[in-house]
Specification:
Belongs to the membrane fusion protein (MFP) (TC 8.A.1) family. Helices cover about 30% and strands about 30% of the residues. About 5% of the residues have low confidence. The protein has about 575 residues and is α+β, with helices and mostly antiparallel strands. It is elongated, with a radius of gyration of 38 Å. Strands 4, 6, 21, 22, 23, 24 and 25 form a 7-stranded antiparallel beta sheet that branches. A 6-stranded antiparallel β-barrel has the order 7-16-19-18-17-20. Strand 24 and strand 25 form a beta hairpin. The protein folds into 4 domains: about 30 residues, no CATH class; about 90 residues, Beta Barrel (conserved putative lor/sdh protein from methanococcus maripaludis s2 fold), CATH 2.40.420; about 200 residues, OB fold (Dihydrolipoamide Acetyltransferase, E2P), CATH 2.40.50; about 140 residues, no CATH class.
C-alpha cells in the first residue's frame, strides 16, 4: 500500500514540475511571438545590395544602378525621418564635438558687435603726379611701388620739344621786354604754367642757353602706390606718371551683415584690433556706412579712419572692429559658438543631438541675433539645454546629404533626387561635351589647391569653375543631367564663399558625386582623366575626384595622407 502511495506522490510531483517547465516555456513562446508581431509592425525599409546608402520606405529600383531594391535588415535604432546616426569612429575621425546650449551671462562684452575687415589706403589722401608738358622721359628716378617720396624731390627728367621752343621764345622776347613788355610777360607765364619756377626762368634768360631736358619735381609727399610710366615713354601734358598715397591716415573697412545694420551709425565709437598687434586697441569713429548692400555677400561696408603717423598700419592688414550695439544680453538670451551655425544666405542652421546617449543628429533652423566675438545670440529655434554640434558641423551635414536626409543643400528633396548616378549611362550632345571639357581646367586647379590645403586658392578656382559651368546651355539636357549640373554649381558656389578648408572639402565630396557622372560619359577626352577614390574620406564612406595624373595626390587629406587612394576608372 505504501508502495502505491509513493508512486502516486511521484506522479503528482512530475505533473507539477512538467506544468511549471512547459507552461513557462509556452508562455515565453507566446511572449516571443508578441515581440515578433511588434517588430513586424515597424516600417520595412528597402535598400540596394550594391549601394547600401540607398534607403527607401517602399520597394522599387535603385536610383543609381537600376537594380531591384531588397528588404533592409531590421534595425532597432528607431530614427526619425530626418535623423542621422554616425559611428563613434566616424565622429572621432571628423573631430565632431557638441556643446550644451546655455543662457548667456552678462560680461564686459555685453552687447558688443564684432566686425571683420581690412586696412585700406585713405583715398581722400591719394594724389596723381602728372607731367606738365609733352615729351619723352629720359630718366625716371622713381620706378617701383612702395617707394617714399617727399615734396620737391626730383622724380623724372623729360625732353620736351615744346619746352625747347618756349625757351627760344623767351630769349627772343627778352631783348624786346622794354618795347613789348606784354609779349615778354606772356612767354614767362607760359613757362610758369609748365611748372618752371621764376629762378629757372631767370637762369635760362641770364645764360642765354636753351636746355633740352627739364626736371619734374614732386608736388606732394607720400608712398608710391602705382608707377604709370617707364623710361623712354612719350607722355602728354597732364598724363599721370605716378600715383601717390599719403599713409599718415588709413581706412579700416569692415563688412557688416544685414542684421547688424540697425546697430550702426555715423560717428559711433569703434575699437580696432589688428592681427599684427593683438594686444593693442586703437580708438576710431565710424566715418562712412555704405548705402548700398553687396548682393553677393549680403553685407555693407563700414569705414573708420585711423591715424597712422607711426606707420603701424599697412594696406591689406586684417583687423577686427568692436563697437557697442543696441541689443543687450538678457537672462533669456541663448548663445552658441559661431562654428555651430551654417548660413546659406537665406537661413541659419544648426545640428542638434537628439539622443543624449547616442550620436544621433537632426538639422534645425534657427534665427540669429548679433554676433558677439566668436558667439552668436539665438533668438528662435533653440532651448536652454539643447545639445548642438559645434565642431564638424559641415561633416555632419555632408553625412545627412549622402543618406538622403534633410540637409543644408537638400531641403525637402527625395532620395532619388539627391543620390549620385555615376553608374548610369547618359547621352550627351557633341556641343555639350565640347563645352563641358572647358570646366576641367579650373576644376583641376581647384583639386590641386585642395592637395596643397590652400583654402584661399580653392575659393578662387571654385569660383572660376562655377563660372565656366554656368556658361553651358543645359536646357536640352534631361532632368537628371540638369539636376547634376545645378547641384554641381551649388557646391562650387558654397566652396567659393567658404574660407575653412574642412567645410570646402565636405562640399567637394558632393560636387564630385554630381560632376563625375557627367564626366565618365564624355567621349574623346584629351588628356585622359582618372577617376580616383579614397576609401577613408567622407567618414570612411569613401570619396572620389578627377585627376590627369595616375599617381595619387589626395585632395581630402593633403600632406596627412597624400597617397591614400586608387584609380577606379578613367575617362578618355
Amino acid at each position: 500500500m505504501k508502495k502505491y502511495i509513493i508512486y502516486i506522490a511521484l506522479l503528482i510531483a512530475g505533473l507539477v514540475l512538467g506544468y511549471v517547465f512547459f507552461g513557462t516555456s509556452s508562455e515565453g513562446s507566446a511572449n516571443t511571438k508578441n515581440v515578433s508581431d511588434t517588430s513586424e509592425t515597424q516600417i520595412q525599409m528597402w535598400t540596394c545590395s550594391m549601394h547600401p546608402q540607398i534607403m527607401q520606405p517602399e520597394p522599387g529600383d535603385c536610383p543609381i544602378c537600376g537594380m531591384d531594391l531588397i528588404p533592409a535588415e531590421s534595425s532597432a535604432e528607431g530614427l526619425a525621418m530626418n535623423e542621422i546616426k554616425m559611428t563613434e569612429n566616424a565622429m572621432a575621425l571628423a573631430n565632431i564635438q557638441t556643446t550644451v546650449v546655455g543662457n548667456a551671462a552678462a560680461s564686459d562684452a555685453d552687447g558688443m558687435i564684432s566686425l571683420s575687415g581690412k586696412i585700406a589706403a585713405n583715398e581722400e589722401n591719394n594724389s596723381v603726379q602728372a607731367s606738365y608738358f609733352d615729351g619723352r622721359i629720359e630718366r625716371l628716378n622713381v620706378n617701383y611701388e612702395g617707394q617714399q617720396i617727399n615734396r620737391g624731390q626730383l622724380l623724372a627728367t623729360i625732353y620736351s620739344p615744346n619746352l625747347v621752343a618756349a625757351q627760344q621764345e623767351l630769349l627772343t622776347t627778352a631783348s624786346l621786354k622794354e618795347s613789348q613788355p606784354a609779349l615778354y610777360k606772356a612767354v614767362r607765364n607760359k613757362l610758369k604754367n609748365w611748372k618752371l619756377s621764376d629762378q629757372q626762368i631767370d637762369a635760362i634768360e641770364s645764360s642765354g642757353n636753351v636746355r633740352d631736358n627739364f626736371p619734374i619735381y614732386a608736388t606732394v609727399s607720400g608712398t608710391v602706390s602705382e608707377v604709370m610710366a617707364r623710361e623712354g615713354d612719350y607722355v602728354k601734358q597732364g598724363q599721370p606718371i605716378l600715383k601717390v598715397s599719403n599713409l599718415n591716415s588709413v581706412w579700416a573697412e569692415f563688412d557688416a551683415y544685414e542684421n547688424q545694420i540697425s546697430n550702426l551709425k555715423d560717428g559711433q565709437k569703434i575699437k580696432v584690433v589688428a592681427n599684427a598687434y593683438p594686444n593693442k586697441e586703437f580708438d576710431a569713429s565710424v566715418s562712412f556706412i555704405d548705402p548700398l548692400l553687396n548682393n553677393a555677400t549680403r553685407t555693407v561696408t563700414v569705414r573708420a579712419t585711423l591715424k597712422n603717423t607711426e606707420d603701424l598700419f599697412k594696406p591689406g592688414m586684417f583687423v577686427t572692429g568692436k563697437l557697442k550695439g543696441a541689443m543687450k544680453t538678457t537672462a533669456e538670451t541663448l548663445t552658441v559658438p559661431a562654428s555651430a551655425v551654417m548660413w546659406t544666405g537665406e537661413r541659419s542652421l544648426v545640428y542638434i543631438k537628439t539622443n543624449p546617449n547616442l550620436p544621433v543628429f537632426e538639422m534645425r533652423g534657427v534665427t540669429i541675433g548679433n554676433r558677439n566675438g566668436e558667439f552668436y545670440t539665438i533668438t528662435q529655434g533653440l532651448q536652454n539645454g539643447d545639445e548642438i554640434v559645434t565642431n564638424g558641423t559641415f561633416t555632419v551635414d555632408a553625412a545627412a546629404q549622402l543618406q538622403g536626409k534633410k540637409s543644408m543643400m537638400n531641403q525637402g528633396k527625395t532620395v532619388k533626387e539627391t543620390m549620385p548616378m555615376a553608374d548610369m549611362k547618359i547621352e550627351l550632345s557633341a556641343s555639350f561635351q565640347k563645352n563641358f571639357t572647358k570646366v576641367f581646367s579650373p576644376y583641376l586647379q581647384m583639386k590641386d589647391a585642395f592637395v596643397d590645403s590652400d583654402a584661399a586658392q580653392v575659393s578662387i578656382f571654385a569660383k572660376a569653375t562655377s563660372k565656366s559651368l554656368k556658361s553651358i546651355e543645359i536646357d536640352a539636357l534631361g532632368k537628371m543631367e540638369q539636376s547634376h549640373i545645378i547641384k554641381s554649381i551649388e557646391m562650387l558656389d558654397a566652396i567659393a564663399i567658404n574660407d575653412k578648408l574642412e567645410n570646402q572639402r565636405a562640399h567637394f565630396v558632393i560636387l564630385n558625386e554630381n560632376i563625375i557622372p557627367i564626366a565618365v560619359n564624355l567621349k574623346d577626352v584629351n588628356p585622359i582623366l582618372y577617376v580616383q577614390k579614397c576609401p577613408m574620406a567622407n567618414n570612411n564612406k569613401g570619396a572620389v575626384w578627377l585627376s590627369t595624373e595616375e599617381d595619387i595626390r589626395n585632395p581630402y587629406y593633403g600632406e596627412q595622407m597624400m597617397t591614400c587612394g586608387s584609380v577606379i576608372d578613367s575617362v578618355q
